[in-house]
Amino acid sequence: MAAKRPHPHDDVLAAIDVGTNAVRLELARVQADGALETLHTERDPVRPGEGVFTTGYLGDQVADRLLATLRRYGALCRRHGARVRAVATSALREAKNRDAIVRRVRREAQLSLEVISGREEARLICLGVLHGKPKRQRSLCIDLGGGSTEIIDARGEVPRALYSVDVGAVRLTELFDLSGDVSKKKLRLVRDYARELMAEALPNRIVGAPKHVIGSSGTVGAVVGFSRSEGVGHATFEEISEAADELAGMDLDERRKHFDPKRAEVVVAGAVILEAALRHLGGERITAVDQGLREGLLQDLLRRRRPDDDDPSLAEAAVAFGRRLGFGEAHGRQVAKLALALFDGLQRLHDMPKRARAWLEVAALLHDVGHVVSHQKHHRHSHYLIGNADIPGLSDHERALAALIARFHRRSQPEPNHELLATLDGMDARVVRRCATILRVADSLDRSHHQPVRRLTLQLQKGTVRLHLDAAQALDLERWDVEHEAKLFHDVFERRLVIVSKH
């Protein structure tokens, strides 16, 4: 598709997906009604996953092919003045030299390549596939990639649960050498292996999940298209299973009569994985759709540009992570509620981007999660745990900022010359310092961990910020603790902090 030269004032978004089979680019213009108009798409069969799942490394020749493609994509994005999100999935997730590749991409292609987790990949696929679905509609999605398979249980376009299984069409093909002839004995072995992986990674049953499954990715489309009856838009589980037998019985040349050469090499593995996933999930039929990760990336970028579009699934993901570590949920939720009220009430003073609100919420929910390691210096342990957490909805950079905000919720103050802040750029350092100050006040307002503050409102006056608190009980401990944060608050926001309590 030829690229159209955009008007200078157009808002252009770009999604780059570095998958296991191919690298893809989509450029889209945001229209006045918020819809996206595709400007340009590209797909390059670079095969970034070639050899990764057997050697553990992205080879030099593969890396050179990848960088040549990304240099071109980067130039196209700059030409259109696009805001870009570039992500890499399972191949780079598992490559031991991933950090070197990411640095090279930044240096040569001028792109920030984010290696995302399987659950973040699933969240983005959910956005891409289910965007616009009715809020009450239940969906079950399977995205079959080259290195992993993502399963999404969703209501409307919001995920209820996200799963990532470390098995994909390229990985399974390389592991069992399925590109050529496949004997019946080998097919049985591969089917057993795929079933075992599904059983290990997925719950025994997803209650209420629909029997009609949505499938995304090129491999799913190829398998469903080959399997289904003529004139029917879906394939049944039995048809997928029969197709796996039929495809395994063909040699590579025969498969190439039905699929493009690269797809023909991995289609047996794809059919086996899809069969195993449907069997485990109880799916009776599957319909393939064209949407997937790229569309999810564009929707994610679109939501980030909207000032009033909060994503409740991010807080839910943070809470789920905290529950796995046995965190104090009641205290975390209370501090998050108070911190967000402070953030909103101080909007005129703090001059932070709207997205910082989400980073503060995650930091507030999880600020005490470090107690699972040790009560001593738990703020440092929280910093480490959040910085290395799998929280779908946050990029690596955003997660690092949330971790820093949590790090400064006690003890050392977030001074600009602190070693952890000195390396940040100006805006990031300001965001961490201001959000950490807000978090310290919010934490102080629940120092008893009994959630005495029922409601908080702010009144901005010349030289003063008055906190009006509706309290369920006396706030002696909370008042005493807030006083210790008053100087920092004044230094950061240039206002004196005054508490007014109704109790």
Task: Report on the architecture of this protein.
The protein has 503 residues and is an alpha/beta fold. The protein folds into 3 domains: 12-116, ATPase, nucleotide binding domain (Nucleotidyltransferase, domain 5, 2-Layer Sandwich), CATH 3.30.420; 119-295, 2-Layer Sandwich (Nucleotidyltransferase, domain 5), CATH 3.30.420.150; 310-501, Hypothetical protein af1432 (Orthogonal Bundle). Helix content is 50%, strand content 18%. It has helices spanning 52-55, 60-80, 90-94, 98-108, 118-130, 169-176, 184-201, 218-227, 237-248, 252-255, 261-281, 293-305, 312-324, 329-345, 347-350, 355-366, 378-387, 396-407, 419-422, 426-444, 476-493; strands at 12-18, 23-30, 36-44, 83-88, 113-115, 138-144, 149-155, 158-165, 212-216, 235-236, 285-288, 453-461, 464-471, 496-501. The strands form 3 sheets. A 6-stranded mixed β-sheet has the order 8-7-6-9-11-10, with helices on both faces. Helix 2 (60-80) packs parallel to helix 4 (98-108). The longest helix has 21 residues, at 60-80. The chain starts with 11 loop residues before the first strand and ends with a strand. The relative contact order is 0.08.
